[in-house]
Structures are given as structure tokens and as C-alpha cells.
Design brief:
alpha/beta; 10 helices; globular; Rossmann fold; five-stranded parallel β-sheet
Length: 221
């Protein structure tokens, strides 16, 4: 099984690329979804977070107030480091478990979808990596439209992640997502071909993708 690392800054369109790869038959290992599961009510992850940060970060149903916690840790490197120390080991463990399950199931391609792919050194276990890029102002506008996040908070999130230059320098491929959805479709098709050229084992999969294509729901990447 080939493991592809997929990364990119906040609201760059990484999830849109991940969705298209899923529609191509890739097994997606979503680090953000894992992180959410690890802090669900009753989990050891949530207990660890509340023990350090306090119960004021829980709502009336015992759910973690992620936005409120984000306001606390982004812009505060020491607190962010504590949160990462609590959750990152558990996230890595679950990613490894899901990859092992995908390999056992005979999946040709698994994609580790992680905004912090480089920061968590997850790329070390990947055969290749791709980073998705967008214009910073596009990213800020998308975050505002999607999450209602103020500009200053969006800038803090961007600052806490690896720079575009760092991601490009370490990535096998780069997808420029400053265009249209049709442009993104073409970029993913080109990525599928590049994967097939690099990894012989993926050539039957790539031929099947080329024959069947993929569909997507319209929307903003």
C-alpha cells in the first residue's frame, strides 16, 4: 500500500482534495476527524484536556468548546505546546492503527490528511506528500465564511502552522488551489497520474480512476 501525506494551511482547500481522492477510491485517514473523536465526551483525551485547561471549556452537554479552546491556545505558544503534548501522541497512534487496517484490507492508496503533517513529523511514515496552497487572503475569507472566525484569529491559526515555503520545500507535489473547482479537478487528475508514474503498484488503480472519473458536489473548496 502506498501512503500519501496531504497537507496545507487552514482553508486552503485540502479537504476538497481529500474528498476527490476518496471518490477515486483512496482510503482517507483524517487527522482532524481523529482529533475530534479523541476529545468526545467520556474519552481519556477530553479528560486530559479538561484536567489541564478546566471545565469552562465544556458546554452544557459535556462537549469540548473547540473554538473557545482555540482562542486560548493560538497566540499562546506555551499553552499550544501543552495541548499538542496531550493529544498528538494519541492522534499518531490512531493514524498508525487506521493505516495498518487499510493495508490489511488491501487498499492500494491511503492518504494521511493532516494540516500538521510536517509539524507532527507524520510525513516520515509517508511514501510521498502533497501540499495544497491558496492565497492567504483567500484562506482568511474562506475561514470567515465557513467558521465566522475574525481576521485576527485566522491570522493566528496561519502563524501557528508551517509556512507555505516550508511545505513546498518538503512536499513531493504542490497543488495550487487559487483557481476554480474545474482547475482543482484537473489538478487532482494530474496528481493521480503522477502517483501512477512514481509507484508501479498504483497503475491499475490510476487506470480505473481514469476510466471512471469522479464526481463531486459543487461548492467552495
Amino acid at each position: 500500500m502506498v501512503v500519501l501525506g496531504l497537507t496545507g494551511g487552514i482553508a486552503c482547500g485540502k479537504s476538497a482534495v481529500s474528498d476527490r481522492l476518496r471518490q477515486c477510491g483512496a482510503q482517507i485517514v483524517d487527522a482532524d476527524a481523529i482529533a475530534r473523536q479523541l476529545v468526545a465526551p467520556g474519552t481519556p483525551g477530553l479528560h486530559a484536556v479538561v484536567q489541564h485547561f478546566g471545565s469552562e471549556f465544556l458546554d452544557s452537554q459535556g462537549m469540548l468548546l473547540r473554538a473557545k479552546l482555540g482562542q486560548r491556545v493560538f497566540g499562546n505558544p506555551a499553552e499550544l505546546k501543552v495541548l499538542e503534548g496531550l493529544l498528538h501522541p494519541m492522534i499518531r497512534q490512531e493514524i498508525a492503527r487506521q493505516l495498518a487496517a487499510a493495508a490489511q484490507a488491501g487498499r492500494p492508496l491511503a492518504v494521511v490528511d493532516a494540516a500538521l503533517l510536517l509539524e507532527m513529523a507524520l510525513d516520515a511514515s509517508c511514501d510521498a506528500t502533497v501540499t495544497v496552497e491558496a492565497d492567504p487572503e483567500q484562506q482568511i475569507a474562506r475561514v470567515a465564511a465557513r467558521d465566522g472566525m475574525p481576521r485576527d484569529q485566522a491570522l493566528q491559526r496561519l502563524a501557528a502552522q508551517a509556512s507555505s515555503a516550508d511545505r513546498r520545500a518538503r512536499a513531493t507535489w504542490t497543488i495550487d488551489n487559487r483557481g476554480t473547482l474545474a482547475d482543482l479537478d484537473l489538478a487532482v487528475q494530474q496528481l493521480v497520474q503522477a502517483l501512477a508514474e512514481r509507484f508501479v503498484a498504483l497503475r491499475p488503480w490510476a487506470r480505473a480512476v481514469a476510466a471512471g472519473g469522479f464526481s463531486h458536489s459543487p461548492g467552495t473548496p
